[in-house]
Amino acid sequence: TVKCFEALLRWRHPSKGVISPALFIPIAEDTGLIDAIGDWVISAACDDAAKWPSDINVAVNVSPNQLQSGSIVESIKNALDHSKLAASRIELEITERVFLHNSEANLLVLQKLRSMGVRIVMDDFGTGFSSLRNLMSFPFDKMKLDRSFVTNIASDTKILGIARAALSISKALNISIVAEGVETRDQAECLHAMGFDYLQGFLFSAPL
Q1: Could you give phi then psi for residue 167, rounded to 5 degrees?
Q2: Per-residue pLDDT tens for 18-52?
């Protein structure tokens, strides 16, 4: 059953083809264009989701720069008002970079968003330096286990142990957990048997 789609941004350059956000997002952050790009992404994602069945959410990745400027609160309000989408149907995915600088100010912005009903997700869990502390610093609605802990989960006992630990943490904190990067049936069956709430990856659909 489909429960959520993640908005994936791509730059379709006329001569260079499709450019990954891993290349152009850092430039947008450095040049100050990330707020304008982020506003458009949030608006487009909400408009699209408003056309879907009411039980399907949309997830949008958020740059720490968007939180630091504080403009994202107004951007979300405007997008929800325009699209008539329920606030609970948008999930904002943040990484641990949010906690490296201006963490207190960023937490205040996240609290404002959550008070509006927006869902907040910890993305790429397991790749940072202080995941547990950061998970406890804010009442996240969901955490996503990074794909690096999924690729060999069906054959690597160490990876399997880490995934089980992440699952236990999510249950202890009463947070839903998603396994990212699921590409094979073996991976899916292993994660499903463990009790993961949601699975995401190419096994279910390539980017649309």
Answers
A1: -65, -40
A2: 999 989 999 999 999 999 999 999 999 999 999 99
- Assigned token pair, 93: 């995915």
pLDDT tens-digit readout, 163-174: 999 999 999 999
- Non-local CB neighbours of 80 within 8 Å, separated by 6+ positions: 46, 86, 87, 90, 116
How far apart (Å, rounded) are the C-alpha atoms in residues 41 and 56? 18
**Alpha-carbon gap, residue 162 to 21, rounded angstroms:** 28
Greater model confidence, 22 or 81: 81
According to DSSP, the β-strands at 11-13 and 17-19 are: antiparallel
83 alpha carbon, distance to own chain's centre = 21
| Residue 15: both structure tokens together | 């001569």
Q: CA 134, CA 151: separation in Å to the nearest integer?
A: 25
**What is the per-residue pLDDT across 190-200, written as a single tens digit (0 to 9) for each?**
999 999 999 99
Here the tokens at position 84 are 């008539």
The beta strands (E) that lie in 28-130 are given as 57-61, 90-94, 119-125
- pTM confidence score: 0.92
Task: Classify strands 119-125 and 142-145 as parallel, antiparallel or unpaired.
Answer: parallel
